[in-house]
From TrEMBL:
This is Type II secretion system F family protein. Residues 165-289 form the Type II secretion system protein GspF domain. The chain crosses the membrane at residues 6-23, 102-121, 127-147, 276-295. It comes from the Bacteria. It is found in: Cell membrane.
Length: 300
């Protein structure tokens, strides 16, 4: 009886921790409710405040664990360049990511063996141990896979915005502005996160005394976007030749749009092939279903 109670307690703790990790955080909800409903509904406000406090405790625990893991990685000389680049694209910190990996791995390490034990699938003590190891490793690696997928999606969005940015720079150059002024003016259009990053990079260049193309190259290096590094090289070589750089930027923007169109067509082709394969497997299964009674009768 004690083993079942302990397994149930661990199962509940694992479920609660997993739900807390996967749930979307809602920071500032208590303040929002207080501002909109200051005059009443004290019960709803109390629940919101409690939920915000729980989110705050989880974030503090994740940040503390992540900071310790980051310090340990720094002491051991682990660069984690791919992870840092993806985190820069997602605008997240390494400590937050490492804390998420540790907590999710711990939750999977506790939860899945508890489920196996509670449901009676564990024929011996070795099964929960193996399940715990596999689940913990999978939970620890899952944030990396999710991070890389999201980072690649944001890089595609960034490349799309860079094409529009180059068109805007060419338009400003045609209006008689110099190259640095055209870059800053083009980055001022829109509040998309990619435009904001470009605008911040150009503003930092003014503060640090860098050239705009040097700042763009640094941004491309931080985000892992090769198109920005190529653009910075072209801008550095162009100098003050306005007409030539204007035509070069327009050609580069057109080339980026063609490449994006090719990527989209390739992805659509892969999806079509996947659908054809799925339909073929369904047809084979249906033929097996139809022929099985006749084949079984031949055997008898």
């Amino acid at each position: 009886m004690i083993a079942e109670l302990a397994a149930g307690a661990m199962l509940g703790a694992g479920v609660a921790l997993l739900v807390s990790l996967l749930a979307q955080p809602r920071p500032g909800i208590a303040a929002t409710v207080a501002r909109l409903e200051r005059s009443g509904r004290r019960t709803a406000l109390t629940r919101s405040a409690a939920g915000a406090a729980a989110d705050g405790r989880l974030d503090r625990a994740r940040q503390t664990i992540g900071a310790r893991l980051e310090s340990e990685a720094t002491l051991r000389g682990w660069q984690l360049r791919r992870t840092r680049t993806d985190l820069a694209v997602m605008n997240r910190t390494l400590a937050h990511h490492l804390g998420t990996k540790a907590l999710l791995g711990l939750a999977a390490f506790i939860w899945f063996p508890s489920v196996v034990t509670l449901l009676g699938y564990a024929s011996g003590p070795g099964v929960p141990v193996v399940v715990a190891a596999v689940a913990g490793l999978a939970g620890f690696m899952l944030p990396d896979l999710q991070l890389r997928r999201d980072a690649e999606q944001r890089r595609r969005d960034f490349r799309h915005v860079v094409g529009s940015f180059l068109d805007l720079v060419a338009m400003n150059l045609a209006g008689g502005r110099g190259l640095p002024e055209a870059l800053m003016a083009a980055s001022s259009f829109g509040d998309h996160w990619a435009m904001v990053r470009l605008r911040q990079a150009l503003s930092n260049a003014r503060i640090m005394g860098w050239t705009p193309w040097e700042s763009i190259a640094r941004l491309g290096e931080d985000l892992g976007v090769a198109e920005l590094r190529d653009l910075a090289s072209a801008l550095a070589l162009a100098g003050d030749e306005g007409a030539r750089i204007r035509s070069s930027l327009m050609a580069r923007a057109e080339s980026m749009r063609r490449k994006e169109l090719v990527d989209v067509e390739g992805a659509a082709g892969e999806s079509s092939q996947s659908m054809l394969l799925a339909q073929l497997l369904m047809c084979i299964a249906f033929l097996v279903f139809l022929s099985y009674p006749a084949v079984s009768q031949l055997g008898s």
